[in-house]
Amino acid sequence: METKFKKSFDWRAARAVALAAVLPPLQRRLHAVVFVLLTLIVANTLFLLAHRGLQTIEAWLTLTRAASQLYQAAVLLHSALGILLMLALGLFVAVHAPEVLRRLRGRWWLPVTGATLVALYAFLLYSGVYFLFNAKTADKQWLYWSHMGASGVFLLLYAGHRLIATQRFPRRQTTGLLAPALALAVVMLAIDVAGAFVNAAAPKDRVVREALPRTKDPTKFSPVTGLHPAAPFFPSPVTIASGAAEVNADSIIGPSQPNLAAEVRAEVEKHGFARQRLIGAEGCARCHADTVAQWETSAHRFSSFNNPFYAASLDLLRARDGAPNEFIKAHLENYGWKDVRTGQIKSQWCGGCHDPALQFEGTMRREIDRGAVKAQAGLTCLACHLIKDIPGHTGSGNYVWDDEFKNPYLFSDASGSLATEIHDMYLKANPEQHKRDMLKPLFREGQYCATCHKVSLEPPLNEYRYVRGQNEYDNWHDSGAQWNAARTFYQPQKKSSCQDCHMPLEPAPLGDLAAKNGKIKSHRFLAVNTALPFIRGDQETIKRIEDNLRGAVRITFAGLRDGDRTATVTEAPQATLTLKAGETPELNLVVRNVRVGHTFPGGTNDSNEGWVEIVVSDAGGRPLLRAGQIDPAGHVVENTRIYNVVLVDKNGERIAKRNAQDIAALVYAAVIPPSASDVVRFKIPAGAIPPDVRELNVSARLLWRKFNRPFSEFVRAAEPKVFARSGPDLPVTEISAAQAGLLIDRRGDEIAYTLKAEPKVPVKEQYFLTHDYGIGLLLQGDTVLARKVLEDLVARKPDCDNCTRTLARLYIANRDYASARRALEEHERRWPHHPQGAWLWAGVLRWEGAEDAALAALNRVLETYPRDREAWRLVMEINYRAGRFQPTVEAAARILDIDPEDATAYYYTALARRALGDTAGAELAQTAYRYYQRDESAQQMTNEFRRRNPDVNFAAQPIRVYALRSAQQE
Predict the structure, then answer these.
(1) What pLDDT band is residue 109 in, cutting at 50, 70 and 90?
(2) Confidence check: pLDDT of 273 > 60
(3) Sign of the torsion formed by the C-alpha atoms of 368, 373, 378 and 382
(4) Cys-Cys crosslink for 704: which of 243, 308, 674, 733, Cβ 3.0 to 4.6 Å?
(5) Buried b (16+ CB within 10 A) or exposed e, 749-782
(6) What are phi and psi of 605, to 5 degrees?
(7) What is the C-alpha to C-alpha distance for residues 132 and 143, in angstroms, rounded to an integer?
(8) Sheet with strand 387-389: strands edge to edge
(9) DSSP-derived pairing of the beta strands 553-562 and 623-627
(10) SS in 3 state form for 779-838?
(11) What torsion do the CA atoms of 877, 878, 883, 884 make, to the nearest 10 degrees?
(12) Counting Cβ atoms within 10 Å, is residue 686 exposed (0-12), middle (13-18) or buried (19+)?
């Protein structure tokens, strides 16, 4: 064995070779350069590793919240040293290798280790340079860790190479390398940590609420939004981190761009708004090309004066003059502002969500140059991504924007220079801090969207009282979509957030560096606004919106009806209803909210317009009867089922110009909650069908137009340039359609009407169409027919758990508690301990007087639905009636945690606290109740309006039967 080993590795011969290979003077000098550079890069690496290690420790994270300037310089130095070392090492190898190969006389171990060192360093250089020009994304983490591991292997292999060459451990070289490197790294780390302590001692970023008296005197009531004349942007609750009432908001629009101001102004003069030139996204596009391309087409981008629909309504508000109310007067006096119109101050209520670039500079309370860049900015990247806090979920722009944010990366203010390239290189190589700054955890929550998609109108604005405006957040939160409502008719298999629907994953073909597996969260924020892309000629976005809308709400034929008699086609292919001669049937259709996570429609429903169109044609296609058409003037005709909201002001005049500041009372809301249905009824007039007609075709469509015709005409008058070429005929989108045949068989004194409709769902799920029909009837209060439909459904489909629950719910609505108990007992036998069944049990047990049992049932509900506000409401009421006042206060507090503007919760809090002897707490709660309660006298405004508008009064009825009209008479 010893002889064999010697043949493979002759230490004596190796020693002779090593001694003969003493470095000549030139190689010694080159080696010294390599050694010095290697020492520096090792010191630099040790510092970088130590710094990164500290950042992973939560206790140190506050000291090194942002990557320090020294750390960033060290990263750049690391790259520079790496390149210099490669040059020096290459020169050394070029001189050293030929001589080594000449003297070795066929021995292989030295060139192999040397070549391996060169190859390993080449990999280190490649991977290091790669991260200079490419982001360290999640799918490239393996390359990063390979770089880290290869550096350690390189040092070990270098020591081994020297050991083989000289036959002794290179202590002097090792000490000469590591000792200075370690000392230099320690010095750098000490400087870095000292700087972190200095930063920690500096004033912290703060969430400003000092100006709001609610925090100073908790015994006095102020709105939970923090709305108070001392707020800097009153009547908007938005605040900025510094607490100032006016700051430079240049960060919202980013670094100045060549010719930007001139190009924006030229677009405004030509089109009425800027629609081509990007504002505030150029810098972001360098790394996030796909995100910016998506945002470029979004409604968020066009939220300010680059949205003519918003601008027209805002100008209406801003033009108002007159004496300021007491709140605005106090606000003006608090800041010493003079010569400011009341309308300008009120417009700040809009500015927090629509015009942050103008709002934060105080421009909303001054004259606005609509051609200025900031007036055409909309919601830019940093307008949203610098929101640092959301104090509650009251909406109306109640957020804190971080005006104190400083981009921690080197050369962040550079523009179009080498410094910009260096900034981008460093950011791509070290994106972690950027991710923490720009993607806060709250951005993934629905509460983030509630900031602007939940609105309240309060006395400083409407000079009336608290009125709830649009509210997508609560409509979504209090639904099955979020698993917060045991009373939902359908519950999806998993929860869905606002972001799930409005920011779905989308391919990123432009190479967005935030992409994972080639996809990013969409920043198109697709919803229903086809008006904005229409006025700028963006047909691609209109198509995307229409594709997204199609099928979100489903229209189907339910059947024929005459009084309490029905013939349904929800499951059977056809159904026949026989009537006496001279009688005609009523056509029933069902409109079901299938996948809209809040009400359909949502948003600005005082100007939105969704409606049902129906056309009855003969066999040749000639229209005979119809409803829901658009007349020659562009208006949807009367006698149409329209899904919208009708509001009036204090004078009983309709809100028709998006003048939200005037909203006082709701006349009616024709909307469909998530997973719920609406029944639409059309009566065929007697004698409307010619005697010789035996076969009819019936088509029904659910249509959508973002703004109704009166509002678009108002905008055309206010913004003539916008509609100069297209006119105000906004796109009409077909959301869903259904077809049916109607056969007429005259048999003497009787006529048999046979409806043939094919359900567009799988056969095994067709019974859900019957269930939808029953739900719609129940919600309209048509309980007689609903009972018949649902009882028949449960008899045929006893294994349908939600059908059984809907039937029990119907019995409870009819106060038929004995039938409800029987239905729930059967439900309990089949689906024991079901939380949605427990919700219904609570209603039955409460009526029976078993309130403790009802509370037990509600506790079972709350185990699965801990944020079900209606369940907590029942807990609160039962405890109060039982004289348990402290549990009443606690249940009310749970409701107010979910919705801090819930008047009923304040009411019971006041009663319970008074019973507990807490007079001050009771007075405070009672004041809050009076503030948030509905105005009981508002009905006088709505009744007068309904008397003057019989078509609106008809639409406000819970059950409406629309008469089909002759197509020839129109």
Answers:
(1) low
(2) yes
(3) negative
(4) 733
(5) eebebbbbbebeeeeeebbbbbbbbbbbbbbbeb
(6) -70, -10
(7) 13
(8) 239-240, 400-401, 387-389
(9) unpaired
(10) HHCCHHHHHHHHHHHHHHCCCCHHHHHHHHHHHHHCCCHHHHHHHHHHHHHHCCCCHHHH
(11) -90
(12) exposed
Task: Tell how many helices (H) and how many strands (E) occur in the chain.
Answer: 40, 22
Taking a C-beta distance cutoff of 8 angstroms, is the pair 246, 252 a contact? no
Rounded CA separation 351/234 (Å): 10
Q: How far is CA 244 from CA 18, 195, 240, 400, 559, in A?
A: 74, 28, 7, 12, 63
Q: Which residue has the tokens 């608090």?
A: 334
Cα–Cα distance for residue pair 869/626, rounded to 1 Å: 43
Q: Which two tokens stand for residue 650?
A: 């204090």
Q: Which tokens belong to 401?
A: 């924007």
Using CA atoms, how far apart are residues 361 and 359, in angstroms rounded to an integer? 5
pLDDT digits (tens, 9 = 90+) for 866-903: 999 999 999 999 999 999 999 999 999 999 999 999 99
What is the mean predicted confidence (pLDDT) over 592-610?
95
Least confident residue range of 11-20, 103-112, 243-252, 896-905: 11-20
Whether the predicted pLDDT of 353 surpasses 80: yes
334 Cα distance to chain centroid = 36
Question: pTM score, two decimals?
Answer: 0.85
Cβ-based burial of 8 (10 A; exposed 0-12, middle 13-18, buried ≥19): exposed
Asked whether the beta carbons of 589 and 559 are under 8 A apart, the reply is no
* Bond from prior residue into 229 cis (ω within 30 degrees of 0): no
Whether 684 has a pLDDT exceeding 60, the answer reads yes
Q: Cβ distance 13 to 107 under 8 Å? A: yes
Which residues are paired to 868 by β-bridges? Answer: none
Quote the CA–CA distance of 330 and 230 in Å, as a whole number.
Answer: 8
How sure is the predictor about 483, in pLDDT bands with cuts at 50, 70 and 90? very high
Residue 63: predicted pLDDT: 44
Q: SS3 for 493-560, per residue?
A: CCCCCHHHHHCCEEECCCCCCCCECCEEECCCCCCCCCHHHHHCCCHHHHHHHHHHHCCCEEEEEEEE
Question: Which is it for the CA torsion 358, 362, 364, 367, positive or negative?
Answer: negative
Structure tokens at 53: 């290690």
Beta strands in 34-183 (DSSP E): none
Quick one: DSSP state of residue 625? E
Q: Tell me if 535 sits within 8 A of 541, measured CB to CB.
A: no
Tokens of 133: 């020009």
User: ∠ CA(717), CA(720), CA(723), 5° rounding?
Assistant: 105
Q: How confident is residue 865, by pLDDT bands cut at 50, 70 and 90?
A: very high
Cβ 626 vs Cβ 724: under 8 Å: no
Q: 380 is written with which tokens? A: 């830019």
Contact between 601 and 702 (Cβ < 8 Å): no
DSSP string, 895-946: HHHH-TT-HHHHHHHHHHHHHTT-HHHHHHHHHHHHHHS--TTHHHHHHHHH
> Is residue 705 within 8 Å of 728, Cβ to Cβ?
no
How many CA atoms does the CB half-sphere of 945 hold within 13 Å? 23
Helix (H, G, I), strand (E, B) or coil at 48: helix
d(CA 170, CA 180): 16
Query: Residues in the chain, how many?
Result: 970
Cβ burial, residue 641 (10 Å; 0-12/13-18/19+): buried
SS3 sequence, 376-440? HCCCCHHHHHCEEECCCCCCCCCCEECCCCCCCCCCCCCCCCHHHHHHHHHHHHCCHHHHHHHCC
- Could you tell me if 85 and 33 are in contact, meaning their C-beta atoms sit under 8 angstroms apart? no
The Cα 698–Cα 558 span in angstroms is 13
Q: What is the dihedral of CA 4, 8, 10, 13, to 10 degrees?
A: 140
